[in-house]
UniProtKB/TrEMBL annotation, chains A, B:
Pfam families: AP_endonuc_2. InterPro entries: IolE/XylAMocC-like (IPR050312), Xyl_isomerase-like_sf (IPR036237), Xyl_isomerase-like_TIM-brl (IPR013022). This is Sugar phosphate isomerase/epimerase. Residues 28-267 form the Xylose isomerase-like TIM barrel domain.
Length: 277, 277
Protein backbone atom coordinates (compact mmCIF):
# COMPACT_ATOMS: atom_id res chain seq x y z
CA UNK A 1 0.00 0.00 0.00
CA UNK A 2 2.76 2.40 0.82
CA UNK A 3 5.02 1.76 -2.13
CA UNK A 4 5.85 4.88 -4.05
CA UNK A 5 5.31 7.29 -1.20
CA UNK A 6 8.70 6.83 0.42
CA UNK A 7 9.67 10.41 -0.49
CA UNK A 8 6.24 11.95 0.03
CA UNK A 9 6.03 14.70 2.62
CA UNK A 10 2.83 16.29 3.89
CA UNK A 11 3.18 19.97 4.59
CA UNK A 12 0.95 20.62 7.53
CA UNK A 13 -0.76 23.61 5.91
CA UNK A 14 -2.34 21.20 3.43
CA UNK A 15 -4.48 19.78 6.25
CA UNK A 16 -4.35 22.61 8.70
CA UNK A 17 -7.62 21.49 10.31
CA UNK A 18 -5.47 18.80 11.97
CA UNK A 19 -3.80 19.48 15.31
CA UNK A 20 -0.20 18.39 15.54
CA UNK A 21 -1.09 15.07 17.23
CA UNK A 22 -3.74 14.46 14.56
CA UNK A 23 -1.18 15.22 11.87
CA UNK A 24 1.29 12.77 13.35
CA UNK A 25 -1.34 10.07 13.83
CA UNK A 26 -2.82 10.61 10.38
CA UNK A 27 0.53 10.47 8.63
CA UNK A 28 1.62 7.40 10.56
CA UNK A 29 -1.62 5.61 9.73
CA UNK A 30 -1.19 6.40 6.04
CA UNK A 31 2.44 5.33 5.88
CA UNK A 32 3.72 8.85 5.32
CA UNK A 33 7.31 9.30 6.51
CA UNK A 34 7.86 13.08 6.26
CA UNK A 35 6.04 16.17 7.39
CA UNK A 36 6.71 19.81 6.61
CA UNK A 37 5.99 21.99 9.62
CA UNK A 38 5.16 25.64 10.22
CA UNK A 39 6.49 27.68 13.07
CA UNK A 40 3.20 29.02 14.43
CA UNK A 41 1.43 25.70 15.09
CA UNK A 42 4.68 24.20 16.35
CA UNK A 43 5.13 27.00 18.87
CA UNK A 44 1.48 26.84 19.87
CA UNK A 45 1.96 23.17 20.72
CA UNK A 46 5.37 23.70 22.27
CA UNK A 47 8.61 23.38 20.31
CA UNK A 48 10.25 20.57 22.28
CA UNK A 49 6.99 18.67 22.74
CA UNK A 50 6.38 18.90 19.00
CA UNK A 51 9.87 17.68 18.23
CA UNK A 52 9.43 14.73 20.57
CA UNK A 53 5.97 13.89 19.23
CA UNK A 54 7.21 13.76 15.64
CA UNK A 55 10.42 11.92 16.46
CA UNK A 56 8.79 9.25 18.59
CA UNK A 57 6.30 8.56 15.81
CA UNK A 58 9.21 7.84 13.49
CA UNK A 59 8.48 10.82 11.25
CA UNK A 60 11.13 13.11 9.83
CA UNK A 61 10.66 16.85 9.32
CA UNK A 62 11.36 17.72 5.67
CA UNK A 63 11.35 21.48 6.22
CA UNK A 64 10.31 24.25 8.55
CA UNK A 65 8.30 27.16 7.15
CA UNK A 66 9.28 29.88 7.39
CA UNK A 67 11.93 32.44 7.95
CA UNK A 68 12.61 35.41 5.74
CA UNK A 69 10.99 38.83 5.36
CA UNK A 70 14.44 40.32 5.16
CA UNK A 71 13.75 43.37 2.99
CA UNK A 72 13.04 46.04 5.60
CA UNK A 73 14.99 49.23 5.02
CA UNK A 74 14.37 50.50 8.54
CA UNK A 75 17.33 49.49 10.77
CA UNK A 76 15.22 48.49 13.77
CA UNK A 77 12.91 46.39 11.64
CA UNK A 78 15.90 44.77 9.98
CA UNK A 79 17.42 43.83 13.33
CA UNK A 80 14.10 42.40 14.48
CA UNK A 81 13.83 40.35 11.28
CA UNK A 82 17.33 38.93 11.62
CA UNK A 83 16.64 38.06 15.25
CA UNK A 84 13.43 36.32 14.27
CA UNK A 85 15.32 34.31 11.67
CA UNK A 86 17.88 33.27 14.28
CA UNK A 87 14.98 31.96 16.34
CA UNK A 88 13.64 30.09 13.31
CA UNK A 89 17.06 28.51 12.78
CA UNK A 90 17.09 27.33 16.38
CA UNK A 91 13.58 25.93 16.01
CA UNK A 92 14.55 24.04 12.86
CA UNK A 93 17.51 22.53 14.70
CA UNK A 94 15.32 21.37 17.58
CA UNK A 95 12.86 19.82 15.13
CA UNK A 96 15.70 17.98 13.46
CA UNK A 97 15.24 19.41 9.99
CA UNK A 98 18.14 20.72 7.95
CA UNK A 99 15.94 22.99 5.84
CA UNK A 100 14.56 26.38 6.84
CA UNK A 101 12.34 27.78 4.08
CA UNK A 102 12.77 31.52 3.54
CA UNK A 103 10.04 33.70 2.07
CA UNK A 104 12.32 36.62 1.53
CA UNK A 105 9.94 39.58 1.71
CA UNK A 106 8.34 42.14 -0.56
CA UNK A 107 8.87 45.85 -1.00
CA UNK A 108 8.84 48.03 2.10
CA UNK A 109 5.81 50.38 2.21
CA UNK A 110 6.17 53.11 -0.40
CA UNK A 111 9.25 51.63 -2.00
CA UNK A 112 9.61 50.73 -5.67
CA UNK A 113 13.23 49.63 -5.43
CA UNK A 114 13.26 45.92 -6.22
CA UNK A 115 17.01 45.61 -6.63
CA UNK A 116 17.66 47.39 -3.34
CA UNK A 117 15.32 44.96 -1.58
CA UNK A 118 17.13 42.02 -3.16
CA UNK A 119 20.47 43.37 -1.98
CA UNK A 120 19.19 43.66 1.58
CA UNK A 121 18.19 39.99 1.39
CA UNK A 122 21.71 39.08 0.32
CA UNK A 123 23.13 41.07 3.23
CA UNK A 124 20.89 39.31 5.71
CA UNK A 125 21.74 35.89 4.26
CA UNK A 126 25.39 36.70 4.82
CA UNK A 127 24.63 37.46 8.43
CA UNK A 128 22.43 34.42 9.00
CA UNK A 129 24.17 31.68 7.01
CA UNK A 130 27.01 31.04 9.49
CA UNK A 131 24.53 30.91 12.36
CA UNK A 132 22.39 28.44 10.43
CA UNK A 133 25.41 26.31 9.54
CA UNK A 134 26.45 26.18 13.18
CA UNK A 135 23.01 24.70 13.90
CA UNK A 136 23.13 22.19 11.06
CA UNK A 137 20.47 24.10 9.15
CA UNK A 138 20.53 25.26 5.56
CA UNK A 139 18.73 28.44 4.52
CA UNK A 140 16.42 27.66 1.60
CA UNK A 141 15.49 30.66 -0.52
CA UNK A 142 12.05 30.16 -2.05
CA UNK A 143 11.22 32.06 -5.21
CA UNK A 144 7.53 32.98 -5.06
CA UNK A 145 5.26 33.53 -8.04
CA UNK A 146 5.66 37.08 -9.41
CA UNK A 147 2.15 37.86 -8.23
CA UNK A 148 3.67 38.07 -4.73
CA UNK A 149 6.56 40.37 -5.71
CA UNK A 150 5.23 43.44 -3.96
CA UNK A 151 4.12 41.94 -0.67
CA UNK A 152 5.84 38.60 -0.04
CA UNK A 153 8.93 38.00 -2.13
CA UNK A 154 10.95 40.13 -4.48
CA UNK A 155 12.64 36.84 -5.36
CA UNK A 156 10.35 35.67 -8.15
CA UNK A 157 12.30 33.22 -10.29
CA UNK A 158 14.55 30.26 -9.70
CA UNK A 159 17.33 32.16 -11.43
CA UNK A 160 17.06 35.02 -8.95
CA UNK A 161 17.03 32.57 -6.04
CA UNK A 162 20.16 30.86 -7.37
CA UNK A 163 21.86 34.19 -7.99
CA UNK A 164 21.34 34.89 -4.29
CA UNK A 165 22.20 31.42 -3.00
CA UNK A 166 25.36 31.08 -5.03
CA UNK A 167 26.95 33.96 -3.17
CA UNK A 168 27.30 31.46 -0.31
CA UNK A 169 28.52 27.88 0.05
CA UNK A 170 25.99 25.28 -1.12
CA UNK A 171 25.77 23.63 2.28
CA UNK A 172 24.69 26.96 3.81
CA UNK A 173 22.19 28.40 1.33
CA UNK A 174 20.00 26.45 -1.07
CA UNK A 175 16.73 27.02 -2.91
CA UNK A 176 13.17 25.73 -2.70
CA UNK A 177 11.69 24.50 -5.97
CA UNK A 178 7.92 24.95 -5.69
CA UNK A 179 6.10 24.03 -8.87
CA UNK A 180 3.19 26.34 -8.01
CA UNK A 181 5.45 29.36 -8.15
CA UNK A 182 7.63 28.38 -11.10
CA UNK A 183 5.48 26.48 -13.58
CA UNK A 184 4.89 29.39 -15.97
CA UNK A 185 8.61 30.09 -16.54
CA UNK A 186 10.19 28.64 -19.67
CA UNK A 187 13.69 29.10 -18.27
CA UNK A 188 13.03 26.84 -15.29
CA UNK A 189 14.40 23.65 -16.88
CA UNK A 190 17.81 25.22 -17.30
CA UNK A 191 17.71 26.70 -13.82
CA UNK A 192 16.73 23.35 -12.29
CA UNK A 193 19.76 21.78 -13.95
CA UNK A 194 21.92 24.63 -12.61
CA UNK A 195 20.47 24.13 -9.13
CA UNK A 196 21.16 20.43 -9.27
CA UNK A 197 24.74 20.84 -10.53
CA UNK A 198 25.46 23.12 -7.63
CA UNK A 199 23.77 20.93 -5.04
CA UNK A 200 21.36 23.76 -4.26
CA UNK A 201 17.96 22.04 -4.25
CA UNK A 202 16.98 22.07 -0.57
CA UNK A 203 13.31 21.24 -1.04
CA UNK A 204 10.78 20.32 -3.70
CA UNK A 205 7.21 21.46 -3.11
CA UNK A 206 4.08 20.83 -5.13
CA UNK A 207 0.64 22.36 -5.56
CA UNK A 208 -1.43 22.90 -8.68
CA UNK A 209 -2.35 26.21 -10.32
CA UNK A 210 -6.09 26.83 -10.64
CA UNK A 211 -8.16 29.85 -11.56
CA UNK A 212 -9.93 32.07 -10.79
CA UNK A 213 -7.64 33.24 -8.03
CA UNK A 214 -9.50 34.18 -4.86
CA UNK A 215 -9.26 37.66 -3.35
CA UNK A 216 -5.73 38.10 -2.05
CA UNK A 217 -4.54 35.23 -4.27
CA UNK A 218 -2.79 33.35 -1.45
CA UNK A 219 -5.36 30.68 -0.71
CA UNK A 220 -6.13 29.60 -4.24
CA UNK A 221 -3.88 26.62 -4.70
CA UNK A 222 -5.22 23.51 -6.34
CA UNK A 223 -5.20 19.84 -5.43
CA UNK A 224 -2.59 17.92 -7.43
CA UNK A 225 -3.95 17.23 -10.90
CA UNK A 226 -6.70 19.85 -10.82
CA UNK A 227 -4.76 22.56 -12.60
CA UNK A 228 -2.22 23.66 -15.18
CA UNK A 229 1.05 22.45 -13.69
CA UNK A 230 2.92 19.47 -15.11
CA UNK A 231 3.83 18.21 -11.64
CA UNK A 232 5.53 15.04 -12.82
CA UNK A 233 7.80 17.10 -15.05
CA UNK A 234 9.04 19.03 -12.01
CA UNK A 235 9.66 15.88 -9.99
CA UNK A 236 11.45 14.20 -12.91
CA UNK A 237 13.58 17.26 -13.62
CA UNK A 238 14.54 17.62 -9.97
CA UNK A 239 15.44 13.93 -9.87
CA UNK A 240 17.45 14.25 -13.08
CA UNK A 241 19.27 17.18 -11.49
CA UNK A 242 20.30 14.89 -8.65
CA UNK A 243 17.69 15.73 -6.05
CA UNK A 244 16.88 12.72 -3.86
CA UNK A 245 15.06 14.39 -0.96
CA UNK A 246 11.43 14.57 0.12
CA UNK A 247 8.66 15.69 -2.22
CA UNK A 248 6.46 17.97 -0.16
CA UNK A 249 2.84 18.71 -0.97
CA UNK A 250 1.85 22.15 0.23
CA UNK A 251 -1.65 23.25 -0.80
CA UNK A 252 -3.36 26.30 0.69
CA UNK A 253 -7.00 25.59 -0.03
CA UNK A 254 -10.05 26.43 2.08
CA UNK A 255 -11.89 23.71 0.14
CA UNK A 256 -9.47 21.09 1.49
CA UNK A 257 -9.49 22.60 4.98
CA UNK A 258 -13.27 22.19 5.17
CA UNK A 259 -13.04 18.43 4.73
CA UNK A 260 -12.13 15.46 6.90
CA UNK A 261 -8.35 15.37 7.20
CA UNK A 262 -7.91 11.65 6.59
CA UNK A 263 -10.01 11.90 3.46
CA UNK A 264 -7.88 14.78 2.20
CA UNK A 265 -4.67 12.87 2.83
CA UNK A 266 -5.98 9.78 1.04
CA UNK A 267 -6.92 11.94 -1.94
CA UNK A 268 -3.56 13.75 -1.93
CA UNK A 269 -1.74 10.41 -1.92
CA UNK A 270 -3.86 9.06 -4.75
CA UNK A 271 -3.23 12.24 -6.77
CA UNK A 272 0.46 12.01 -5.93
CA UNK A 273 0.62 8.52 -7.35
CA UNK A 274 -1.25 9.56 -10.48
CA UNK A 275 0.32 12.94 -11.21
CA UNK A 276 3.76 12.93 -9.59
CA UNK A 277 5.24 9.42 -9.52
CA UNK B 1 -1.95 73.56 -19.52
CA UNK B 2 -1.36 70.75 -21.99
CA UNK B 3 2.40 70.75 -22.04
CA UNK B 4 3.86 67.40 -21.27
CA UNK B 5 0.88 65.36 -22.35
CA UNK B 6 1.67 65.38 -26.05
CA UNK B 7 2.34 61.63 -25.98
CA UNK B 8 -0.32 60.73 -23.43
CA UNK B 9 -2.97 58.28 -24.59
CA UNK B 10 -6.11 57.36 -22.69
CA UNK B 11 -7.06 53.74 -23.07
CA UNK B 12 -10.84 53.75 -23.03
CA UNK B 13 -11.03 50.96 -20.43
CA UNK B 14 -9.59 53.37 -17.89
CA UNK B 15 -12.84 55.36 -18.00
CA UNK B 16 -15.20 52.78 -19.35
CA UNK B 17 -18.18 54.57 -17.82
CA UNK B 18 -17.80 56.98 -20.74
CA UNK B 19 -19.57 56.34 -24.02
CA UNK B 20 -17.47 56.79 -27.12
CA UNK B 21 -18.79 60.35 -27.72
CA UNK B 22 -18.12 61.17 -24.06
CA UNK B 23 -14.60 59.75 -24.40
CA UNK B 24 -13.92 61.88 -27.45
CA UNK B 25 -15.40 65.01 -25.89
CA UNK B 26 -13.60 64.43 -22.59
CA UNK B 27 -10.24 63.87 -24.21
CA UNK B 28 -10.61 66.85 -26.50
CA UNK B 29 -11.55 69.09 -23.57
CA UNK B 30 -8.50 67.93 -21.62
CA UNK B 31 -6.08 68.37 -24.50
CA UNK B 32 -5.47 64.64 -24.88
CA UNK B 33 -4.39 63.68 -28.38
CA UNK B 34 -4.51 59.88 -28.37
CA UNK B 35 -7.00 57.24 -27.35
CA UNK B 36 -6.60 53.48 -27.11
CA UNK B 37 -9.77 51.73 -28.17
CA UNK B 38 -11.35 48.32 -27.56
CA UNK B 39 -13.19 46.32 -30.16
CA UNK B 40 -16.41 45.68 -28.25
CA UNK B 41 -17.41 49.30 -27.52
CA UNK B 42 -16.27 50.34 -30.99
CA UNK B 43 -18.46 47.71 -32.63
CA UNK B 44 -21.36 48.58 -30.36
CA UNK B 45 -21.13 52.19 -31.57
CA UNK B 46 -20.46 51.20 -35.15
CA UNK B 47 -16.96 50.82 -36.57
CA UNK B 48 -17.10 53.47 -39.29
CA UNK B 49 -19.03 55.91 -37.13
CA UNK B 50 -16.45 55.48 -34.38
CA UNK B 51 -13.59 56.03 -36.79
CA UNK B 52 -15.22 59.18 -38.10
CA UNK B 53 -16.03 60.49 -34.61
CA UNK B 54 -12.44 60.10 -33.44
CA UNK B 55 -10.90 61.43 -36.64
CA UNK B 56 -13.12 64.50 -36.85
CA UNK B 57 -12.24 65.38 -33.25
CA UNK B 58 -8.56 65.40 -34.24
CA UNK B 59 -7.72 62.40 -32.05
CA UNK B 60 -5.42 59.59 -33.11
CA UNK B 61 -5.93 55.95 -32.11
CA UNK B 62 -2.79 54.67 -30.42
CA UNK B 63 -3.84 51.02 -30.41
CA UNK B 64 -6.78 48.69 -30.77
CA UNK B 65 -7.33 46.03 -28.07
CA UNK B 66 -7.41 43.23 -28.77
CA UNK B 67 -6.76 40.31 -31.01
CA UNK B 68 -5.07 37.10 -29.97
CA UNK B 69 -6.33 34.00 -28.15
CA UNK B 70 -4.40 31.93 -30.65
CA UNK B 71 -3.59 28.87 -28.54
CA UNK B 72 -6.55 26.59 -29.32
CA UNK B 73 -5.49 23.07 -30.27
CA UNK B 74 -8.86 22.24 -31.78
CA UNK B 75 -8.73 22.91 -35.55
CA UNK B 76 -12.16 24.51 -35.77
CA UNK B 77 -11.46 26.77 -32.81
CA UNK B 78 -8.14 27.72 -34.33
CA UNK B 79 -9.75 28.67 -37.64
CA UNK B 80 -12.36 30.73 -35.82
CA UNK B 81 -9.63 32.52 -33.84
CA UNK B 82 -7.61 33.36 -36.94
CA UNK B 83 -10.76 34.63 -38.66
CA UNK B 84 -11.55 36.81 -35.67
CA UNK B 85 -8.03 38.23 -35.78
CA UNK B 86 -8.43 39.03 -39.46
CA UNK B 87 -11.56 40.99 -38.51
CA UNK B 88 -9.60 42.79 -35.77
CA UNK B 89 -6.92 43.73 -38.30
CA UNK B 90 -9.57 45.17 -40.60
CA UNK B 91 -11.09 47.12 -37.71
CA UNK B 92 -7.68 48.53 -36.75
CA UNK B 93 -7.16 49.67 -40.31
CA UNK B 94 -10.53 51.43 -40.42
CA UNK B 95 -9.76 53.16 -37.11
CA UNK B 96 -6.45 54.35 -38.53
CA UNK B 97 -4.23 52.72 -35.96
CA UNK B 98 -1.14 50.78 -36.92
CA UNK B 99 -1.13 48.73 -33.70
CA UNK B 100 -3.30 45.74 -32.92
CA UNK B 101 -2.64 44.50 -29.38
CA UNK B 102 -2.60 40.71 -29.08
CA UNK B 103 -3.38 38.91 -25.84
CA UNK B 104 -2.12 35.61 -27.10
CA UNK B 105 -4.17 33.11 -25.07
CA UNK B 106 -3.73 30.68 -22.19
CA UNK B 107 -3.69 26.91 -22.05
CA UNK B 108 -6.54 25.05 -23.69
CA UNK B 109 -8.79 23.25 -21.16
CA UNK B 110 -6.98 20.28 -19.65
CA UNK B 111 -3.65 21.09 -21.27
CA UNK B 112 -0.38 21.60 -19.41
CA UNK B 113 1.73 22.10 -22.53
CA UNK B 114 2.99 25.67 -22.39
CA UNK B 115 5.57 25.31 -25.15
CA UNK B 116 3.02 23.72 -27.48
CA UNK B 117 0.69 26.64 -26.89
CA UNK B 118 3.49 29.10 -27.62
CA UNK B 119 4.27 27.32 -30.89
CA UNK B 120 0.65 27.55 -31.98
CA UNK B 121 0.84 31.31 -31.38
CA UNK B 122 3.89 31.50 -33.61
CA UNK B 123 2.08 29.55 -36.33
CA UNK B 124 -0.90 31.88 -36.16
CA UNK B 125 1.32 34.97 -36.25
CA UNK B 126 2.88 33.58 -39.43
CA UNK B 127 -0.57 33.28 -40.94
CA UNK B 128 -1.79 36.70 -39.79
CA UNK B 129 1.26 38.93 -40.20
CA UNK B 130 1.08 39.28 -44.00
CA UNK B 131 -2.64 40.08 -43.77
CA UNK B 132 -1.93 42.69 -41.12
CA UNK B 133 0.90 44.21 -43.16
CA UNK B 134 -1.37 44.45 -46.20
CA UNK B 135 -3.70 46.56 -44.03
CA UNK B 136 -0.94 48.76 -42.63
CA UNK B 137 -1.29 47.17 -39.20
CA UNK B 138 1.40 45.72 -36.98
CA UNK B 139 0.63 42.82 -34.66
CA UNK B 140 1.75 43.73 -31.14
CA UNK B 141 2.37 40.75 -28.85
CA UNK B 142 1.65 41.70 -25.26
CA UNK B 143 3.36 39.70 -22.53
CA UNK B 144 0.93 39.42 -19.62
CA UNK B 145 1.87 39.02 -15.97
CA UNK B 146 2.59 35.35 -15.16
CA UNK B 147 -0.52 35.28 -13.01
CA UNK B 148 -2.45 35.12 -16.31
CA UNK B 149 -0.37 32.29 -17.82
CA UNK B 150 -3.06 29.63 -17.56
CA UNK B 151 -6.07 31.57 -18.79
CA UNK B 152 -5.01 34.62 -20.80
CA UNK B 153 -1.44 34.52 -22.07
CA UNK B 154 1.25 31.87 -22.09
CA UNK B 155 3.50 34.75 -23.17
CA UNK B 156 4.57 36.06 -19.77
CA UNK B 157 7.82 37.96 -20.24
CA UNK B 158 9.18 40.54 -22.64
CA UNK B 159 11.85 38.04 -23.65
CA UNK B 160 9.24 35.50 -24.68
CA UNK B 161 7.31 38.15 -26.60
CA UNK B 162 10.47 39.20 -28.44
CA UNK B 163 11.41 35.58 -29.13
CA UNK B 164 8.06 35.30 -30.89
CA UNK B 165 8.11 38.67 -32.61
CA UNK B 166 11.63 38.29 -33.94
CA UNK B 167 10.60 35.36 -36.09
CA UNK B 168 8.96 37.99 -38.30
CA UNK B 169 9.98 41.33 -39.79
CA UNK B 170 9.87 44.20 -37.29
CA UNK B 171 7.34 46.15 -39.30
CA UNK B 172 4.92 43.21 -39.10
CA UNK B 173 5.19 41.99 -35.50
CA UNK B 174 6.15 44.08 -32.46
CA UNK B 175 5.59 43.92 -28.72
CA UNK B 176 3.58 45.81 -26.13
CA UNK B 177 5.51 46.99 -23.10
CA UNK B 178 3.01 47.19 -20.23
CA UNK B 179 4.63 48.13 -16.94
CA UNK B 180 1.85 46.44 -14.94
CA UNK B 181 2.78 43.09 -16.42
CA UNK B 182 6.55 43.43 -16.46
CA UNK B 183 7.59 45.44 -13.41
CA UNK B 184 8.67 42.48 -11.24
CA UNK B 185 11.15 41.12 -13.82
CA UNK B 186 14.82 42.01 -13.29
CA UNK B 187 15.66 41.10 -16.89
CA UNK B 188 13.29 43.67 -18.36
CA UNK B 189 15.89 46.43 -18.75
CA UNK B 190 17.95 44.29 -21.09
CA UNK B 191 14.87 43.15 -22.97
CA UNK B 192 13.66 46.74 -23.38
CA UNK B 193 17.00 47.61 -24.93
CA UNK B 194 16.72 44.57 -27.20
CA UNK B 195 13.20 45.60 -28.19
CA UNK B 196 14.35 49.10 -28.96
CA UNK B 197 17.36 48.00 -31.02
CA UNK B 198 15.08 45.86 -33.12
CA UNK B 199 12.43 48.53 -33.54
CA UNK B 200 9.92 46.24 -31.87
CA UNK B 201 8.21 48.49 -29.32
CA UNK B 202 4.72 48.93 -30.75
CA UNK B 203 3.08 50.32 -27.62
CA UNK B 204 3.88 51.44 -24.09
CA UNK B 205 1.13 50.96 -21.50
CA UNK B 206 1.02 51.94 -17.85
CA UNK B 207 -0.91 50.98 -14.73
CA UNK B 208 0.25 50.53 -11.17
CA UNK B 209 0.46 47.28 -9.17
CA UNK B 210 -1.57 47.31 -5.98
CA UNK B 211 -2.55 44.60 -3.51
CA UNK B 212 -4.58 42.78 -2.38
CA UNK B 213 -5.61 41.46 -5.76
CA UNK B 214 -9.39 41.14 -6.11
CA UNK B 215 -11.03 37.82 -6.91
CA UNK B 216 -10.08 36.89 -10.45
CA UNK B 217 -7.13 39.32 -10.31
CA UNK B 218 -8.03 41.09 -13.56
CA UNK B 219 -9.68 44.22 -12.20
CA UNK B 220 -7.13 45.12 -9.55
CA UNK B 221 -4.94 47.64 -11.31
CA UNK B 222 -3.91 50.76 -9.52
CA UNK B 223 -4.00 54.44 -10.39
CA UNK B 224 -0.57 55.74 -11.41
CA UNK B 225 1.52 56.33 -8.31
CA UNK B 226 -0.60 54.23 -5.95
CA UNK B 227 1.50 51.09 -6.18
CA UNK B 228 4.84 49.37 -6.58
CA UNK B 229 5.77 50.15 -10.17
CA UNK B 230 8.49 52.63 -11.05
CA UNK B 231 6.48 54.01 -13.97
CA UNK B 232 8.94 56.74 -14.87
CA UNK B 233 11.69 54.14 -15.16
CA UNK B 234 9.67 52.30 -17.81
CA UNK B 235 8.98 55.46 -19.79
CA UNK B 236 12.61 56.55 -19.60
CA UNK B 237 13.91 53.14 -20.59
CA UNK B 238 11.51 52.94 -23.51
CA UNK B 239 12.57 56.41 -24.59
CA UNK B 240 16.24 55.47 -24.25
CA UNK B 241 15.55 52.43 -26.41
CA UNK B 242 14.28 54.74 -29.13
CA UNK B 243 10.54 54.60 -28.54
CA UNK B 244 8.84 57.86 -29.47
CA UNK B 245 5.20 56.76 -29.63
CA UNK B 246 2.19 57.29 -27.39
CA UNK B 247 2.25 56.46 -23.68
CA UNK B 248 -1.06 54.77 -22.99
CA UNK B 249 -2.64 54.59 -19.56
CA UNK B 250 -4.77 51.46 -19.20
CA UNK B 251 -6.18 50.88 -15.72
CA UNK B 252 -8.87 48.30 -14.99
CA UNK B 253 -10.30 49.55 -11.73
CA UNK B 254 -13.90 49.42 -10.51
CA UNK B 255 -13.00 52.23 -8.12
CA UNK B 256 -12.20 54.51 -11.06
CA UNK B 257 -15.24 53.34 -13.01
CA UNK B 258 -17.53 54.38 -10.17
CA UNK B 259 -16.41 58.02 -10.40
CA UNK B 260 -17.09 60.95 -12.69
CA UNK B 261 -15.10 60.42 -15.88
CA UNK B 262 -13.75 63.96 -16.18
CA UNK B 263 -12.52 63.81 -12.60
CA UNK B 264 -10.77 60.51 -13.28
CA UNK B 265 -9.08 61.89 -16.38
CA UNK B 266 -7.90 64.99 -14.51
CA UNK B 267 -6.45 62.77 -11.79
CA UNK B 268 -4.79 60.45 -14.31
CA UNK B 269 -3.19 63.43 -16.05
CA UNK B 270 -1.95 64.85 -12.77
CA UNK B 271 -0.50 61.49 -11.79
CA UNK B 272 1.03 61.14 -15.25
CA UNK B 273 2.84 64.44 -14.82
CA UNK B 274 4.04 63.44 -11.35
CA UNK B 275 4.98 59.81 -11.89
CA UNK B 276 5.70 59.39 -15.58
CA UNK B 277 7.08 62.59 -17.11
Amino acid sequence: MNSGIERFSLNQQTIRQWSLPELVAGCTAAGVRYVGLWREPVRAYGLRAAARLVREAGLAVSSLCRGGFLTAADPAERIAAVDDNRAAIEEAAVLGTGTLVLVCGGLPPGSRDLSGARERIADALGELAPYAAAHGVRLAVEPLHPLFASDRSVVSTLRQALDLAERFPAERVGVVVDAYHLWWDDTVAGQLARAGRGGRIAALQLADWITPLPEGALLGRGQLGDGSVDLRWFRERADAAGYTGPVEVEIFSPALWARDGAGVLAEVLERYRTHVL
